[in-house]
Amino acid sequence: MSTTRQHPPGDLGREPDGAGEASAAPADRQWRTISLRGASGIVPMARDFARQALYDWGWLPAAGADRRAAAEDVLLVVSELVTNACLHAGGPEELRIACTPKVLRVEVVDQGAGEPAPRTPHRAGRPGGHGMFIVQRLCLDWGVTRAPDAPGKTVWAELAAPA
């Protein structure tokens, strides 16, 4: 899994500056953004935001087990990335979610200097440290982007859209 590539296979890239909650970018690409800076109950707020996007984009209500599993995977990845930002980066600044017919991209922006990585060796029985391992297992790809002239980073992950 990548941790440095700017734009992964889905090539959704970053939301254009100044875009609102739902970008009017190409018809097959939809963006949702929420500010999490200074909010309380950040993880449930992020999950609720992601769940609403999944409803709006037709992933929910799920018609079958595969669609239900895909939606649950997205919510789990959102939870893990936001939790990591809370624990290791002073809290998330923003959550962005983009959707195309084939790929869903989750981005969490924070001001942390650290580099997320799955704990190795992974030990299932050891408490904590499973977040990025879960993200790595559920996603097509994931990574970190940094602006050269600004602090912080964006941790992104991409999941396959249900068939």
List the helices and strands and how they pair.
Layout: E1 30-35, H1 42-56, H2 65-88, E2 92-99, E3 103-110, H3 131-138, E4 141-145, E5 153-160
Helix pairs in contact: 1-2, 2-3
Describe this structure in words.
The chain is built from three helices and five strands. By secondary structure, the chain is of the alpha+beta class. α1 (42-56) runs antiparallel to α2 (65-88) and α2 (65-88) packs antiparallel against α3. Residues 1-10 and 15-26 have low confidence and may be disordered.
Quickly list its features:
globular, single chain, 5-stranded antiparallel β-sheet, alpha+beta, disordered N terminus, 21% strand, 163 residues
The N- and C-terminal alpha carbons lie at a distance of 23 Å
Largest sheet: 5 strands, antiparallel
User: Roughly how many Å is the radius of gyration?
Assistant: 15 Å
- Spans of 5+ residues with little confidence (pLDDT < 50)? 1-10, 15-26
| DSSP strand content | 15-25%
Total count of strands: 5
Give the helix proportion (percent range): 25-40%
Q: Roughly what is the average pLDDT, rounded to an integer? A: 84
Anisotropy-based shape = globular
Secondary structure class reads: alpha+beta
Taken in chain order, the helices and strands follow as EHHEEHEE
Write down the oligomeric state: single chain
Number of helices: 3
Question: Main sheet: which strands, in order across?
Answer: 1-2-3-5-4
